[in-house]
């Protein structure tokens, strides 16, 4: 039976940990091109998806999601086809059902970046090929998987950031500061499944959905962690090992830009806020960043910022997801 990746809520903690284990192997098996060398590890994944094709249907712009999936398919011996908004024009030129049924005759999986989460759910329901959510208004599962993988990596690798070595995911506190959006929802699900403490600091009226928060708080409790909501950024980062933020104005919210910038101004991740967290707290951002709005240059460019490691891990984690969903 085919399996999709639409929301982290649908994954078990075991499945998440399996993705992380495979990501470790993938990262070791092929030193990334930037570093130049192949280290000759015994696992060779270069033909893992030979003959397989991934369709990327994107209704919004993208750097990380598109490029990491395309490069990932290439590195696994497969192929990808990018379909921009004008090409399929989902729901206008062609229904989601007809597009999915047709594509399923040609390709092996679909990454869908869409405005409305219901489109992802419908695509997954009608497609014969696995569907991966490449961002919807509710969820960004690939981002959250890469984020928690990055945190795990930073806190467990002795050669990483020294003061962090030895802490496991179970005794880390992640503070998410800003809009209770799709990224926040996916982080909540992932932290709850893995037993990671999470604080959310969001203005009143911009908190994550009540149902997501309640579900995550209950599950986190069962997994020995706590998830707390604050309407103040300083309270949210108190005791945090990691501070995470995202843009205040997401794609499609441009008309609300001025009002949002006013509402979120006390939720900026700046040096004052960082000083209120644990010493040497790591800084994360899913990118793209609006420098000078939700995060200042001196924080995103600081020595404790791991935003580009986080971005790189999109590639490694998504390769693991692709193998899990498409590998024979
Ligand atoms: N973080 C993220 O999804 O980046 P893109 O919008 O560039 O894909």
From TrEMBL:
It comes from the Bacteria. It catalyses: carbamoyl phosphate + L-ornithine = L-citrulline + phosphate + H(+). L-ornithine binds at residues 182, 246, 250-251. GO terms for biological process: citrulline biosynthetic process; L-arginine biosynthetic process via ornithine. Pathway: Amino-acid biosynthesis; L-arginine biosynthesis; L-arginine from L-ornithine and carbamoyl phosphate: step 1/3. GO terms for cellular component: cytoplasm. It is an enzyme of class 2 (transferase). Carbamoyl phosphate binds at residues 89, 113, 140-143, 286-287, 314. Residues 170-323 form the Aspartate/ornithine carbamoyltransferase Asp/Orn-binding domain. InterPro entries: Asp/Orn_carbamoyltranf_P-bd, Asp/Orn_carbamoylTrfase, Asp/Orn_carbamoylTrfase_sf, Asp_carbamoyltransf_Asp/Orn-bd, Orn/put_carbamltrans, OTCase_ArgI. Its EC number is 2.1.3.3. The keyword Cytoplasm applies. It is found in: Cytoplasm. Signal peptide: none annotated. This is Ornithine carbamoyltransferase.
């Amino acid at each position: 039976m085919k399996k999709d990746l639409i929301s982290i809520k649908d994954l078990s903690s075991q499945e998440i940990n399996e993705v992380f284990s495979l990501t470790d192997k993938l990262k070791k098996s092929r030193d990334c091109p930037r570093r130049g060398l192949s280290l000759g590890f015994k696992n060779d994944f270069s033909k893992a998806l030979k003959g397989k094709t991934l369709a990327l249907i994107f209704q919004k712009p993208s750097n990380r999601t598109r490029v990491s999936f395309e490069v990932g398919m290439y590195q696994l011996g497969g192929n990808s086809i990018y379909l921009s908004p004008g090409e399929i024009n989902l729901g206008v030129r062609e229904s989601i059902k007809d597009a999915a049924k047709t594509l399923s005759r040609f390709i092996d999986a679909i990454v869908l970046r869409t405005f409305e989460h219901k489109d992802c759910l419908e695509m997954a329901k009608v497609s014969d090929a696995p569907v991966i959510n490449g961002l919807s208004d509710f969820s960004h599962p690939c981002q959250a998987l890469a984020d928690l993988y990055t945190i795990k990596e930073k806190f467990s690798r002795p050669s990483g950031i020294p003061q962090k070595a030895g802490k496991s995911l179970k005794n880390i506190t992640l503070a998410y500061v800003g809009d209770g959006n799709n990224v926040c929802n996916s982080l909540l699900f992932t932290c709850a499944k893995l037993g990671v403490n999470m604080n959310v600091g969001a203005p009143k009226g911009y908190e994550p959905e009540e149902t997501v928060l309640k579900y995550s708080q209950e599950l986190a409790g069962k997994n020995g962690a706590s998830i707390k909501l604050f309407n103040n950024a300083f309270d949210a980062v108190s005791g945090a090992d990691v501070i995470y933020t995202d843009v205040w104005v997401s794609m499609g919210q441009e008309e609300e830009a001025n009002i949002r910038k006013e509402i979120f101004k006390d939720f900026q991740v700046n040096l004052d806020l960082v000083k209120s967290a644990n010493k040497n707290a790591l800084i994360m951002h899913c990118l793209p960043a609006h420098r000078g709005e939700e995060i200042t240059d001196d924080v995103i460019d600081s020595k404790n910022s791991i935003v580009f490691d986080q971005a790189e891990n999109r590639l490694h984690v998504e390769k693991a997801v692709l193998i899990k969903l498409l590998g024979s």
